[in-house]
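Show me any protein, keeping tokens residue-aligned.
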Amino acid sequence: MNPLQRAAPVDVEALIARRPMGLSLEAPFYTDEAIYDLDLARIFGRHWLFCATEAQIPEPGDYVTMDVGPYSVILVRDEGGSIRAHHNVCRHRGARVLWDECGSVANIVCPYHQWTYRTDGTLIFAESQPPTFEMEAYGLRPVSVRTMAGLVFVHLGERPPDDFAEMAAVLESYLAPYDLRNTKVARQEEVVQEGNWKLVLENNRECRYNEASHPDLATSYFPVFGYSENDISPQLRPVFERYLVAAERLEAARAAAGFPRDERREIDTRVTGFHISHHPLDGEGSSFGPHAEPLCTRLLGSIGQPAFGDLSLKFQPNAWFHFLSDHAVLFRMLPAGPTRSVLQTTWLVHRDAVEGVDYDPEALTRSWRITNAQDTALIAKAQDGVENPAYEPGPYSLVEDDIEACIRWYVDRLTATGEDVGAAVAQYAAGL
């Protein structure tokens, strides 16, 4: 749609002001193109985004690209082994430099006029320039990049939030035992989800994996998240008793390994929001195989026993992770339009694990491939619902407090700078 032909901008400040806690957002937050543009600018343009893992770019010259709205980023390991991030825009006449999602290069060469850059972004070839041309002034524009225990994050703006180091100091003690830098990608898949990115995030933050919605995961997870003992029905009582036994086993395993035990829930209390928690699994307590059976015989890092539950990390605004004793599953979600998102799922195993011997890639990925398909259908139904003129915001349940915290973070971050939100929306809607 031509930006000048858009409908009159919505009054986002009024929408925010009248939103009571505990209710879902009004429809324009999930459908309006100007609010989507505002989300790109104020959420995805001003916060740290999970991009990739170090395991995806293990050697010098290895790269991945990531597209976020109008932005494209190159994440590359340079000749010295450091990780760099660059805007994927040639400094000559603006052509996109790398088009593949991943690959390996000796140098980064623009396909249009062959301007050539080292992997650290330095310009080393620009044909037919005058003697006064300063090569050093025309390197690829850098993107802020940080690593944390093998996970790589980028920031698209000029002033990244200054709390990344504080967050990393908390989380690295949880993640270090899994030694993600010594893993490899067993499989990676992308799926387009026909829903606004906030609906995708809400669906993930719900975390009620029950037999009706996710029967494959139900064999591993206990369906008691968010419940206190007083909330347990007679039907759930046997499951809850089994959960208590599994929780005691996990606590003993963590104590023996010197593993952190505290849950850290800081979804809406900091700029770089996160939530890390450690859950026991049902059955064998190990992984996402049938009845929580292991899926890879080679364990990660220093995790010394298979039955080590699921370490779950949720990261605002675009990622969530599951770390098991035998593999890790990483999810990266990015907006692709007001009503469309792209979910990338990456499965990591130990670097020395041998496909077909230590793990079967089909079995390794089965439960989450099925779950992603189920979630894709659920998100499409949710998007269809919020586009219905009859839609009104509804109340979150008592066990959906993570969704409320997630949305509260989102609303707070939209208004955090004190800038006029309504004027910004009007500007985007006018295409200025």
Notes: The two ends are 14 Å apart (CA to CA).
